[in-house]
């Protein structure tokens, strides 16, 4: 049968074909913004005369609304141009639209003719005149472009004509590139566009008076038009404020899922379309799973870790590098993921929607286990050389460890262990304690007492307790570890020596200085016999022994040993290596105790400069070196500098540490001494009274820190004219030190001298 293109009723009386319009949606009166994109589309289609242009963007970003706005503009401004709208959701919707166009144009066809081919031929002919064809939702690459199993593609039924233009909307960059010469990316709204849309959507204008809360809400919704529309509908229907909506959004993941899963009626979207943020991408997820299973695996994996700054090295192995690149390309093509150097960012709402999809598909627990296994296998040790890697991995490991799933997987607790080690290096002590507690709880229930993994986690927990100021807990755990290792391991075994070393450090922190010195002398002797001079473990034990010597008043021994350690570390380690900085810090302390104040100040200024450059404000090591520099300034007569620096340190430690934490007490104690040197006696007395009260409640009578703070409070009382209080307190100190310290110990001698002077003052 021949083709009769149009009947006489389709023409004006002068024989010119009149324009026809097939648009399935009414004008969207709430449409805002997008002026730049619309201008670009008009320019490409009608000025540069590109035959095909594709608008590509994330589901819910507003592609259909932009296409509708362009179609209406064309109808109103290019009056001889027909506009036809064809949804490419499926073969059926495509054919239905073509059937409607054929009927509208009164195109006659035979019974054996395919309506799609008839419409293609007609629109390709001169008789059709000017036209714009919108192919909306061209997301399925097999449907649109064909495949070996589906040779008939929708693209093969699209017309070509000098008078015609085709605009596609698609979520898939691959589709866009295949079907159009020009592709234009549609991003989320700008803040101003998002505010304008919200303003049009809500009738209760009091909701949007608080600009700060509006901005906060829009940022949470990533400026995505569909999410904003959905939130506005919820606000209106439930009569809640933006603050209340935000609270729900941030409360629990279940609340967030409930909010973002609510379908809303929308006459400007297809009836079968998902109108909720949490479900709008389901069709895309399903298509990705069909087309590229490895990309779906990658998407699932990323949904369980942090959505931003995902190192590509952390991703699961997908076979060849080419397959990984292809899978990432697929996800970028759907705008689910974007690349930033060797990192990936996942859209935060897609991140949530993927988890919802996995849950509904029954795949969530399996995915969590896969991610846990991968991170446990990839997470590095806490060596300094690995710091860039574990800093990049930490947020993702912490995210997966928050999950309650996979709570009986050994990999989970292996990950807890190494995450804890790295958190401790970073100075995030409370978080490290939690990780080690979880690890030890599980391992102690799984392994016999002498199992290496159980002992390693017990040792790590004890070290974290010590850093957190929980000294008694640390000592108790470490004594257990040492007993087991001394019973089961040879004298020179690294694990036995390591646990003795750590226990000695805990003894020192607990004021048991003689025990610390004795144990460390054993460890150093064995390590000197078995390890090379520059071995990190040998240097670490020599360093710790020097600290113990200093606490024991053996200052010359401490200085000599620390100078040896520092010489080796300066020769073998980078300037900013933590071990090198620690030995410089400790040597400066020893210099100060030895009266070499200028040396101490110079060395500490170097350490503080490096640590300020490389560590966060609240990092324990940075605060420790600032504290020590302030002490050195005070000894050097630079009192104002000392006060200023100590006030900074005390402010941070009071904000971040418990009242009884040794480091907090030490900095308060030192600030009180600086106040006294600066003539601010009342401030000094008040602060020292606080420190002494906490020390008397939490430390043993003979603990050096308790005795030192009591001694200094007595001196402050004397400076304040409170002689009887000073005498009573110094008398207590002398009594304890005469029982616990050697006769020639500097602290004992100083207390005795102060007591004698106070007796003279009191008798006058």
Question: Would you write up a description of this structure?
Answer:
- The strands form two sheets. Strands 1-3-4-5-2-6 form a six-stranded parallel β-sheet, sandwiched between helices.
- By secondary structure, the chain is mainly α.
- α25 (536-551) packs parallel to α27, α27 (578-593) packs antiparallel against α28 (597-614) and α33 runs parallel beside α35 (746-763).
- Helices cover 64% and strands 5% of the residues.
- The chain is elongated and about 125 Å long.
- Residues 38-206 form the NB-ARC domain.
- Keywords: Hydrolase.
Count of helical regions: 35
What would the CATH topology of the domain at 8-185 be?
A: Rossmann fold
Q: Strand portion, in percent? A: 5-15%
CATH class of the domain at 8-185: Alpha Beta
Structural class: mainly alpha
Radius of gyration over C-alpha positions, nearest whole angstrom: 37 Å
Q: Which spans of ≥5 residues are poorly predicted at pLDDT below 50? A: 1-9
Mind telling me which CATH architecture of the domain at 8-185 this is?
A: 3-Layer(aba) Sandwich
Mean pLDDT: 90
Strands, total number: 9
CATH superfamily of the domain at 8-185: P-loop containing nucleotide triphosphate hydrolases
Classify the helix fraction into a percent range: 55-70%
The profile of the biggest β sheet is: 6 strands, parallel
Annotate the secondary structure layout.
Layout lengths: L20 E2 L12 H13 L4 E5 L6 H15 L3 E7 L3 H14 L10 H10 L5 E7 L4 H5 L18 E7 L2 H7 L2 E4 L5 H11 L9 H10 L4 H14 L3 H10 L1 H8 L16 H4 L1 H10 L1 H10 L7 E2 L9 H13 L3 E4 L2 E4 L1 H13 L3 H15 L8 H15 L8 H16 L3 H18 L5 H16 L3 H18 L5 H16 L3 H18 L5 H16 L3 H18 L5 H16 L3 H18 L5 H16 L3 H18 L5 H16 L3 H18 L5 H16 L3 H18 L5 H18 L1
Helix pairs in contact: 3-4, 7-9, 8-10, 10-11, 13-14, 14-15, 17-18, 17-19, 18-19, 19-20, 19-21, 20-21, 21-22, 22-23, 23-24, 23-25, 24-25, 25-26, 25-27, 26-27, 27-28, 27-29, 28-29, 29-30, 29-31, 30-31, 31-32, 31-33, 32-33, 33-34, 33-35, 34-35
